[in-house]
């Protein structure tokens, strides 16, 4: 539905010309008198449904002759506001908001594949995405081929007549490997490419401009930026998003209005936050690279990172706020580090305003076998650092104290 240019006046409540009982006043209350001034901050439309003038208006809404909403599972002004902003940021025709990142991924897969179809996916993905693909393969007969996302030719070689979708991360979780999105898109030809751009955000990269057909975000992360929203969003062509939205509504994966409002509020500071965390992460990665307690550091801004060259080409505005580093001594050493970090919490998420650490082996990638993690370079000594908005010198001091304590 089209987004109205102006917010309509608040609907009137009870008629003041009638004498109503207390029960009626209470049951129908809550409305302000009608007004025409526009609020300076977007309102929250916390409603399950929208009242209709009659059957004619219902028909007009259902046929999209007029703009409006009927039932919040199918659409709500707060959904539309966030989706519209995301579509504009990504250079997309449309976007769909879901109740979580996994909900958004589910809606996309339901819109694209059925039993017997084929999906190509990068080997290094968010662990739950990989788990979902394995579940589709074992339980629903969807064929999945995992390939090296750093080898575009592998995608072309994996294509079959039944291939309906390919999935990659532009900055991989947790090793921060930067995929060559244009080369992969070219290798796939007409096969739609979904790019998980959660780590990059539209500030650092716009995958649709590089040849992808769908861009995906866990909006719980940088888009919101404050650790208080559970949401996912995908953007792409209008025809594709209509199919995704239909699956979202049919299977009940819609987000609630208040979380959409929070995510919209978070977008207002997204460019400033991404610039800040990229600068701080670059400084901290250089610091960690030279620390004797650290075995290796994974950050695409470092010349030592295997995808540094492609990162410079495809991430011209910065390399993001995510850093991974490996400690000598494995899990036991990581446990000591986490106990010594003080104000930097161990949290199984990322992209909050505050800096956090996570343990991929025990959180995001715990569903993989130890052998599969080892093959991908995700070892027991690996720590993922989500750099926040604190003073970078304070973060250095806190990391230095914790590292010296192990």
Helix content: 25-40%
Please state how the strands of the largest beta sheet are arranged side by side: 1-7-6-5-4-2-3
| CATH architectural name of the largest domain | 3-Layer(aba) Sandwich
How many individual helices? 15
CATH class of the largest domain: Alpha Beta
Overall number of domains: 2
Rg over alpha carbons: 23 Å
Beta-strand fraction estimate: 5-15%
Number of beta strands: 11
CATH fold topology of the largest domain: Aspartate Aminotransferase, domain 2
CATH superfamily of the largest domain: Type I PLP-dependent aspartate aminotransferase-like (Major domain)
Helix and strand content put the structural class at alpha/beta
Distance between the termini: 56 Å
Parts with pLDDT < 50 across at least 5 consecutive residues = 1-7, 9-14
Overall 3D form: globular
Structural notes for this entry:
α4 (101-112) packs across α9 (238-250), α6 packs parallel to α7 and α13 (330-340) packs across α15 (392-405). The chain has 2 domains: 77-267, Type I PLP-dependent aspartate aminotransferase-like (Major domain) (Aspartate Aminotransferase, domain 2, 3-Layer(aba) Sandwich), CATH 3.40.640.10; 270-405, Aspartate Aminotransferase, domain 1, CATH 3.90.1150.10. The protein is globular and about 80 Å long. The protein contains 15 helices and 11 strands. By secondary structure, the protein is an alpha/beta fold. It is 38% helix and 14% strand. β5 (193-196), α8 (201-204) and β6 (214-218) form a beta-alpha-beta unit. The strands form 2 sheets. The protein has a 7-stranded mixed sheet, sandwiched between helices.
């Amino acid at each position: 539905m089209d987004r109205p240019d102006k917010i309509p006046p608040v609907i009137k409540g009870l008629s003041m010309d009638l004498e109503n009982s207390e029960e009626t006043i209470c049951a129908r209350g809550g409305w302000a008198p009608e007004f025409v001034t526009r609020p300076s901050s977007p309102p929250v439309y916390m409603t399950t449904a929208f009242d209709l003038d009659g059957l004619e208006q219902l028909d007009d809404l259902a046929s999209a002759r007029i703009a409006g909403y009927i039932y919040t599972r199918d659409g709500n002004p707060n959904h539309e506001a966030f989706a519209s902003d995301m579509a504009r940021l990504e250079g997309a025709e449309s976007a769909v908001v879901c109740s979580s990142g996994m909900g958004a991924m589910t809606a996309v897969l339901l819109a694209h594949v059925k039993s017997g179809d084929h999906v190509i996916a990068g080997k290094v993905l968010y662990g739950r995405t990989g788990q979902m693909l394995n579940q589709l393969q074992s339980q629903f007969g969807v064929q999945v081929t995992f390939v090296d996302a750093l080898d575009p030719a592998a995608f072309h070689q994996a294509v079959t007549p039944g291939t309906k979708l390919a999935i990659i991360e532009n900055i991989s979780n947790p090793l921060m490997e930067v995929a060559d999105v244009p080369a992969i898109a070219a290798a796939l030809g007409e096969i739609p490419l979904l790019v998980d751009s959660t780590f990059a955000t539209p500030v650092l990269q716009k995958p649709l401009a590089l040849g992808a057909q769908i861009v995906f975000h866990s909006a719980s992360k940088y888009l919101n930026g404050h650790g208080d929203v559970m949401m996912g969003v995908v953007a792409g062509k209008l025809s594709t998003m209509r199919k995704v939205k239909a699956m979202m509504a049919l299977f009940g994966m819609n987000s609630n209005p208040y979380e959409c409002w929070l995510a919209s509020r978070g977008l207002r500071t997204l460019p400033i936050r991404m610039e800040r965390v990229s600068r701080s992460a670059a400084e901290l990665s250089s610091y960690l690279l030279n620390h004797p307690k650290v075995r290796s550091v994974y950050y695409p801004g470092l010349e030592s990172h295997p995808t540094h060259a492609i990162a410079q080409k495809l991430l011209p505005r910065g390399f993001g706020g995510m850093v991974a580093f490996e400690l000598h001594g494995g899990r036991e050493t990581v446990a000591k580090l986490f106990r010594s970090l003080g104000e930097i919490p161990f949290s199984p998420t990322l992209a909050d305003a505050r800096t956090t650490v996570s343990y991929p082996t025990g959180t995001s990638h715990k569903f993989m076998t130890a052998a599969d993690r080892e093959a991908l370079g995700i070892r027991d000594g690996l720590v993922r650092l989500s750099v926040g908005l604190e003073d970078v010198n304070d973060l250095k001091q806190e990391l230095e104290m914790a590292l010296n304590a192990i």
